[in-house]
Amino acid sequence: MPESVLWCVSFDGTPLSGVVVESLKLADAFRQRGHRVLLDVGYDIKEDKGRFFAPYTDEADGLPPWVELVRVDGLDSIPWYNPAFVASTLRAVRFGTPLQGCFDVVVEALARRIEATWRRHGVTAVLVGNGTLPENIAYTRALYRAIDRYGPAIGRPFVLWHDHDLMWTSEPSSGKYGSPPYPLAPKPLNSPYIRYLALHEDARRRTLEWVPDLRDLRVLHNTFDFERSAVGIGFREAHGIPAEAALIARCTRLIPQKRADREIDLIAALRHRIHDRPVYLFLAGDPTEHPPTVAALEEQARRLGVSDRVIFGGRLAPRDLDVPHAFSVADLLAEADLMSFLTSYDYESYGNPIGEAIASGVPYLTTRYALYDTVYGRKGLHAPVLEVSSQDEAPLTPEFLADVVELLTNPRLHSRVSAHNRARGERYFGRSRAAETVDDLLTGVVTAPVWAGDTVPPLEAGTRMTVVLPVKDEAANLPAVIEGLAGQTGPGGPLDRGLFDILLVDNNSRDETVSLARELASRHEGLRLWVIHESEQGVSCARRTGMDLAAARAAERDGDDATRRFYLVSADADCRVAPDWLWELLSAMDGEKAAIGVCDYYYDAAHFAGRPLLWEAIDRTIRSRRVAWSRFGGFPDGKGFAVDRRSYQRVGGIELSYQMENGRLVSHLSDDWDFGILVRATGEDIVYVPGSRVEINPRRVDHAIDEVVAGRAYGSGGIITMRDIRPTESMRPGGRDLTEAEAVQAWEFSIKDFMPKNMILAAVLTPSLLDDEGVIDLLSPGLARRMAARIPEITADTHLHSYLPIHSYKTPCFRLYFEFAEELFARLRAKVGPDIGYPPPLPDCLQEVRDTGDEDRFREMVRQYCEDRESGEAHDYFGNGGVF
């Protein structure tokens, strides 16, 4: 078997910069999967480090032993390619002056030598560090050209393009790379062979603003090894730090923009606040990189009287790389009490020292530099944070100093902060994320150009619908879903694929859902599928993100033109849509001018063969729903519905609600139903579209059958638990039948859930429906008239001004059910069939009152029962078991 070989190239031009360290962390994941690791440190790319064409000497001493130093063959023989050419090109980038006439010739020569070198080494994967930074745009363009030529031999994505810095984050105050729109800087190119990695969410957003059509741009935070431990043996002795001293570590380069002077000010201030032990500062950085900075820091320490407390320790080996025979940042942090990072406001990078401290279990201090909140501050970490102005002013405040003193003198607080930050940090910065990224690349497939960004292309002129498809680990179901959408038909044959597009919202899938979706879509000419990501877990969050984006695209295209109707269509990955699903929805929405179109949800009876008692309960529920919805219009279900874009935006879109689950706030899963309530309450029409059919996955029933039977599918004891009952398995028949007793119980919970929500609720929200001929035909004139009179009385009695707050509709609907159940069941028997039967038994407490014949007393006790918030008895009686 051919050897797997990873080629790493860094545009940083130094053997052990932060860019190289992060590249080698990713490279280590390749190494653990059998790759030989080759590293080109970029001497022949970046001219301002003074190492252009310089031979390697002792660089390997600072690298792990599994790294082999390499470079591209024959670059020094390319005519015109030299430091002066690179410097001239960078000036052109910055000032917009013309490129040299030899530029294209140099690019082609570079590309040929890169490709030839890869072939000689048998390279199977490439890792590019900071290639988009326009230090050398000739090399960047040559690299893209070499990838395009070499890619067919690999036959899949083989390049991770990892940008740490971009024009707007690297030395922004210097204007080194010019200003937007950076006309000469090579934009990232869409390629079937490249996957792009941004350092954080802000960099990803900014990149997509710059390159709106870029596909496959993902965020990979810098990662840290939380398993690594060091004991720091001999570290203090080697650097003259007393064993009893408190030690503050600073692990950055000693250059002006890093502002290590603030740590010296801090040590001087602490000397007057901590008297029982001396406080030392260790500055880890190469003192020869910028001697004037070191001299200024030494003078500052002397002037403040802390020269004996400031240790200039020199460069240390990286924390997360095994470099033999050298002290590392891990050794320093093993001995440190705190890590300090009081850097400049416009610090342009990630802030690795903070991540290293978190992974080492060491509390940290930091300024609120420009990217701090983006990278660390919003992740629930605990630390003293020194405010810093955009002019880089950051005086040490009494409050900040008090927090630092408390961390140094209170062991219990120190321990709590360390443990808290470590637990939070591993969630975001654990090394497993790097490993997952590498696995994703190595198992990837070549796909046709399909979108994968957070900013989708503008909506095309003829597109009338966007299908929003939330997914999480749906690889087993996607083939049928995509085939179903690709196979949509209209009255004259295949549906014009220009009428709709698909917005797949990936909700943290860990399987091949996303790559498979792209591959499946690419097989169908004209089928447009865009992929976006929603990191907050929950189908409600994903559906809202997709619909918000779809609505925004339509609003941007259509503006105030009220004659152009556009529909957001919800779909569910584990259900199946009929071939004319979209056409039926489109026709009904256009014809009725409704705000929402509700699909016909059904089960295939064949899946319940041999399970007659379960099927009878399901079938009665479905038949009741069809009759009720044909009169009342129904309510949307995420399995399939359409909403007019303007109606969606008029009510503010899907509203998320949250509930507690195991000590965490999680999104509520009834977003679809509650959205329907929101629209219905505005007086807009909801139309039931029986021809737009959606087959429900029968595994949903099997997945929650015991809870359905017992009426606990969504909680008990008055506690509403809106858990997602959707299974992840593909659609297939199976499971047990119900017993006679279970069948009765399941039907009773189903009909008790159905009637308040599907018949009564619509009338409560829109009382004018009780004047509709179809509703009167269903209910009878007398029942419709008495319900119309009773609804405002109950509304006034509850003192509710609105039924929009989540679940507020239940009390009035439950009350109306108890008062009118006998008549409502009689009308369902007449319209649906005699097998609907009679109302389930009343709760004993209400039956006792009913037996007295005192109807006023019965109504009063119904009110008390339904408004009892303490016991949850009413909730348990109705059970929310309507998952059929």
How would you describe this protein?
An eight-stranded mixed sheet has the order 18-17-14-19-22-21-25-20, with helices on both faces. The protein has a seven-stranded parallel sheet with strand order 3-2-1-4-5-6-7. The chain has 30 helices and 25 strands. The longest helix has 26 residues. By secondary structure, it is an alpha/beta fold. It folds into four domains: 216 residues, Rossmann fold, CATH 3.40.50; 196 residues, Rossmann fold; 246 residues, Spore Coat Polysaccharide Biosynthesis Protein SpsA, Chain A (Alpha-Beta Complex), CATH 3.90.550.10; 126 residues, no CATH class. The relative contact order is 0.06.
What are the key terms here?
single chain; 884 residues; alpha/beta; Rossmann fold; Spore Coat Polysaccharide Biosynthesis Protein SpsA, Chain A; 4 domains; eight-stranded mixed beta sheet; seven-stranded parallel beta sheet; 30 helices; 42% helix; globular; Glyco_trans_2-like; Glycosyltransferase involved in cell wall biosynthesis/GT2 family glycosyltransferase; Glycosyltransf_2; Nucleotide-diphossugar_trans
Secondary structure elements and pairings:
Blueprint: E1 4-10, H1 18-32, E2 35-40, E3 67-69, H2 83-95, H3 103-121, E4 125-129, H4 137-154, E5 159-163, E6 194-198, H5 201-210, E7 217-219, H6 235-239, E8 246-251, H7 261-271, E9 279-284, H8 291-303, E10 310-312, H9 329-335, E11 338-341, H10 352-360, E12 364-367, H11 372-377, E13 385-386, H12 398-409, H13 411-429, H14 432-442, E14 465-471, H15 478-486, E15 489-490, E16 493-494, E17 500-506, H16 513-522, E18 529-533, H17 539-558, E19 567-571, E20 576-577, H18 581-592, E21 596-602, H19 612-632, E22 640-644, H20 645-650, E23 658-661, E24 664-667, H21 671-681, E25 686-695, H22 699-703, H23 705-710, H24 740-765, H25 773-779, H26 781-798, H27 810-831, H28 844-851, H29 855-867, H30 873-878
Parallel strand pairs: 1-2, 1-4, 2-3, 4-5, 5-6, 6-7, 8-9, 8-11, 9-10, 11-12, 12-13, 14-17, 14-19, 17-18, 21-25
Antiparallel strand pairs: 15-16, 19-22, 20-25, 21-22, 23-24
